[in-house]
Amino acid sequence: MTSATHSTLFPQVPDSADAILDGLDPEQREVATALQGPVCVLAGAGTGKTRAITHRIAYGVRAGIVQPTSVLAVTFTNRAAGEMRGRLRQLGAGGVQARTFHSAALRQLQYFWPKAVGGDLPRLLERKVQLVAEAAARCNIRLDRNELRDVTSEIEWAKVTQTVPADYPAVVAKSQRDAPRDPAEISQVYAMYEQLKRDRTVIDFEDVLLLTVGILQDRHDIADHVRRQYQHFVVDEYQDVSPLQQRLLDLWLGDRDNLCVVGDASQTIYSFTGATPDHLLNFRTRHPRATVVKLVRDYRSTPQVVHLANGLLGQARGRAAEHRLELVSQRERGPEPAYTEYADEPAEAEGTARRIRDLIAAGVPAGEIAVLYRVNSQSEVYEQALADAGVPYQLRGAERFFERPEVREAGVALRGAARAGGNDSLLDDAQGLPAEVRVVLSTKGWRSEPPAGSGAVRDRWESLAALVRLAEDFERARPGATLSDLVAELDERAAAQHAPTVQGVTLASLHSAKGLEWDAVFLVGLTEGMMPITYAKTDEQIEEERRLLYVGVTRARFHLSLSWSLARSPGGRSGRRPSRFLNGLRPGSAALGSRSAAGGSGGIERPAAARRKRRGPALCRVCGRTLTDAGEMKLMRCDDCPSDMDEALYERLRDWRAVRAQEISQPAYCVFTDKTLMAIAEAVPGSEGELAGIPGVGARKLGRFGGAVLDICAGGDGAEESAEADEEV
Predict the structure, then answer these.
(1) For residues 279, 284, 289 and 290, what is the CA-based torsion angle, rounded to 10 degrees?
(2) Given this model, what pLDDT does residue 1 score?
(3) Rounded distance, CA 553 to CA 313, Å?
(4) What is the pLDDT of residues 73-88, one digit of tens each?
(5) Are 553 and 560 in contact (CB under 8 A)?
(6) How high is the pLDDT of residue 729?
(7) pLDDT of 613 over the 70 cut
(8) Cα(645)–Cα(429) distance, rounded to whole angstroms?
(9) Which of 124, 129, 158 has its CA nearest to residue 273?
C-alpha cells in the first residue's frame, strides 16, 4: 500500500506546467524546479520523494524544457517503476521511460546486440539455482538447500561488485565478508557456473548489466546513440545502487551532469546484494556544484511514530548515521506505540491476531494492516493465528495482481461486455459504470458480501472486489465514463503494473516491506538474535539491522505495535531478551551505556497468559522429543511418529466441518484446521475440559462448536448440537 492510494485515484490532469507545482511544499517545489545540472535529494521516509521527482519530470515536460522521450527514470523494483509510470501519466507526462536498472539495460542489450556482437541475444536464465547446483556437483562440492541458496546469492554479490571468480577469496578476506562456505570452494563453484553458462549460451540477470556495460565501453558509436536518446536521468533509491549499476549509470551519462538522485542513507538495507550508500554520500564530492535539497516533512506517520523513528537513529553509529535526517511529522497526534511481551511465539502470534481482529472491528480495513518480521520462516505461525481468528491475509511477494487468473478472466469478461455495448442483455438493468462492472463480475464469482475468513475463495473475491472499487473511483473521477473507457484504463494499468488495492492483512519480511506503508503495523519477534539477526557480527552489520528496524517503524501511519516473546515454544526456557535497539526507547528500559536500568514494566503490556505459571516444554507423546513446530504441538507428536488416530472419527469430523463451514459461509479451516481435527481424532475427548486442552480449540470455538464435536466423538452426528449452538449465538 502506498500513499498514492490515499489521494484521488484518478485526478484531473493539471492544465498547465504551473498547476503541476500546486500542492508541493517549499522543498518539494525546489526539487521540481531544479531541472538543470546535478541534483541530490536527501529524502526521509514518508516525505513525498516520489511525488517530488515525478512532479519534477512532469513540470519539465509540460514546460517544454524536457522532451519526454529524452528522460530515463530508473528505480529498483517493477512495482516502484509501475507506480512512477502511473503517476507521470496522471500528470500528463506520458512517454517518459521509467524502468528498473535491469529492464532498461535488457532493452538496450536486445536492441544493440545484433550490431555489437551479431546473431541473437543469448537466452536469459530465469533461475540460476539449478545451474549453481550442477556447478557444485561438478566440483564435487555437496550443498544442502540452504547452502545452495546462500552460494547463489554470493555469486550474485560477486558479480554486482565486479569480482571475478579468481579474485573472490581475496576480496572476501579484504572486506571481512562472512562467506557461507570456504571462499576457495565458492570460487570454484562460481568459475564452473560461468563455464556452464558459456557452454549453454545463456546469460543471467547480472550478465545483462555486465554485457551492457561492456558494449557501451567498447563501442563508442553505440554509447553515443544511447546518449543522444537520453539527456536527463533520475535515479530513485540511490542509496541502494551497486558498483555495477553505478558504472552503467556513468556510461549512460558520459560527460554530462543532468542527473537527479534521490535517497536516504538511513534506509540502506540491501548491502548483502552489493548495495552501498557511498555513491549517495559522495555525490557532492563528485559534483561540487550540485543542488542539494533535504526533505524532512513526514506526511505519513504520526508524531509518536516519528519520535520513535528518530530515537532509533539517534543511537546509530557510522557514516550513514552521520547523515541521518531528523523527521518532522506533519500529522495530528495519534496513539503511542504499543510494546508487548509474550511468554512464547504462539502466544505472540495469537495476541497479534486478536489485536488485528479488534482493529478491523474498529473500522481499520484489513488491507491497511501489516505484520512485519525479520525472516520469512516466521510467517507460518502468524498465518495459522490469523486463519484461526478468521482474519483474511496475503503474503507479500505473491503473484502480481494483473497476472492472477481471476483478474485475467475478469478482464476478458469486461472486454467482451464493452465490445457488445448495448447488445448485451446482461447489462439491461445496470445503471452506471460501477453497476455494469458488478453485473459482469458476478458471473465470475463476485458477490456484494465477502466470504468470511481467508484462503483461495477469499483471495479470488478480494481481487474482483478491487476491480469493483476501481470502477467506482473511476466513475467518480470521470462522470459518464463507459465500460470501454474502464477497459482501456485497466490495460494501461496492467502495462504499468499499477495495481489497485487488495484487502487482506499483509504478512511480509522487513526487507520486502521497503517502499510500502499501512495504517497499522505490527513489528513482531523483536528479540536479540532475530533483531539484530544472530549472524550480524560487525559494527556495520549491526547498524544495518538497526536501519532495517527503522524502515519497519516508518511503514506505520497511525498504529504501531512492537512485540517479542521470551521463549520459542510453550513451556520453553524463557531466556530471550528484547532487541537492544529498543533500549532507551521502550518504557522501563535504559539506553545502552546507561549507568542504571529503569525498573518496572513502565508501560510494557504483559498479557495474562505471559504471567501464568509456565507449563513444561511441549514433548512428543510418542518419542519424547521437544516440539517446536506449531502443527506438531497441536498433535503433541512429531509428524513422522506413528499416529493412533481414529480414522473413521477423523472422516466424520471432516464431513461435519464441511457442512458447518457451508452453513456459516466460511472456509473449512476457519471452523477447525486439519491438524486440529487430527488432534481431536487422536485424543477422542469426552468432556469440554479435555477438548479445551487440545491446541487450536480456544474458548470461542469451544463455545460455538464444542458440543457438536463432543457429540461426534461420542458416536453422534453433531447436527442437533450445531442447531442449539446457532440458536445461542
Answers:
(1) 60
(2) 37
(3) 11
(4) 999 888 888 888 888 8
(5) yes
(6) 39
(7) no
(8) 55
(9) 158
Query: Using alpha carbons only, how large is the chain's radius of gyration in Å?
Result: 28
Determine the Cα–Cα distance for residues 640 and 618; give it in Å rounded to an integer: 16
Q: How many CB atoms lie within 10 A of CB 140?
A: 8
Secondary structure class of 176 (helix, strand, coil): coil
408 half-sphere exposure, CB direction, 13 A CA radius? 5
Upper half-sphere CA count for residue 397 (Cβ side, 13 Å): 10
DSSP-based three-state secondary structure for 34: coil
Q: Are 216 and 223 in contact (CB under 8 A)?
A: yes
Write the pLDDT tens digit of every residue in 121-177: 899 887 888 899 999 999 998 887 768 888 898 898 898 888 999 999 998 888 777
Task: Report how far Cα 339 is from the mean position of its chain's Cα atoms.
Answer: 23
Residue 39 β-bridge partners: 260, 291
Mean per-residue pLDDT of the chain: 82
Q: How far is CA 316 from CA 6, 321, 546, 641, 667, in A?
A: 32, 6, 7, 48, 47
Dihedral angle sign, alpha carbons of residues 413, 414, 416, 420: positive
197-201, 270-274, 433-437: least confidently modelled range: 270-274
What's the N-to-C CA distance of the chain in angstroms? 36
- For residue 329, CA distances in Å to 83, 258, 311, 348, 474 come to 24, 32, 14, 30, 31
Reply yes or no on whether the pLDDT at 38 is more than 60. yes
Q: Which residues are within 8 A (CB) of 299 and not within 5 positions of it... i.e. 6 or more apart?
A: 3, 46, 47, 48, 330, 331
If you search the block for the grid coordinates 537513529, which residue do you land on?
Answer: 313
> Beta strands 71-75 and 97-100: pairing type?
parallel
Environment class of 619 (CB within 10 Å of its CB; exposed 0-12, middle 13-18, buried 19+): middle
Could you give the CA distance from residue 82 to residue 500 in angstroms, rounded to a whole number? Answer: 12
Residues 6+ apart with CB under 8 A from 356: 366, 369, 371, 386, 389, 391, 505, 520, 522
Position 359 scores a pLDDT of: 94
pLDDT for the residue 596: 36
What the block records as the C-alpha cell of 430 is 445496470
Instruction: Give me the phi and psi of 420, to 5 degrees please.
Output: -70, -30
Q: Cα separation of 130 and 657, whole Å?
A: 42
DSSP-derived secondary structure for 136-156: HHHTT----HHHHHHHHHHHH
Who's near 438: CB < 8 A, 6+ residues apart?
430, 446, 448, 468
Phi, psi of 339 (to 5 degrees): -115, 125
Phi, psi of 120 (to 5 degrees): -90, 150
Q: Cα(84)–Cα(7) distance, rounded to whole angstroms? A: 15
At residue 51, what are phi and psi to the nearest 5 degrees?
A: -60, -45
699-713 and 719-728 are packed helices; what angle lies between their axes, rounded to 10 degrees?
160
Cβ atoms 532, 580 nearer than 8 A: yes
312, three cell numbers: 532509533
Give pLDDT tens digits for 89-134. Answer: 888 888 888 999 999 999 999 999 998 888 888 998 878 888 999 9
Confidence of residue 450 (pLDDT cuts 50, 70, 90): low
- 630 neighbors 384 (Cβ within 8 angstroms): yes
User: Edge to edge, what strands does the sheet with 232-235 contain?
Assistant: 97-100, 71-75, 232-235, 259-263, 39-43, 291-295
Pick the range with the lowest mean pLDDT from 29-38, 393-402, 509-518. Answer: 393-402
pTM of the model: 0.68
CA dist list (Å): 423 to 183, 418, 419, 426, 427: 69, 10, 9, 9, 9
- Local structure of residue 512 (DSSP, 8 states): T
Alpha helices in 97-204 (DSSP H): 101-116, 129-138, 145-160, 168-175, 183-200
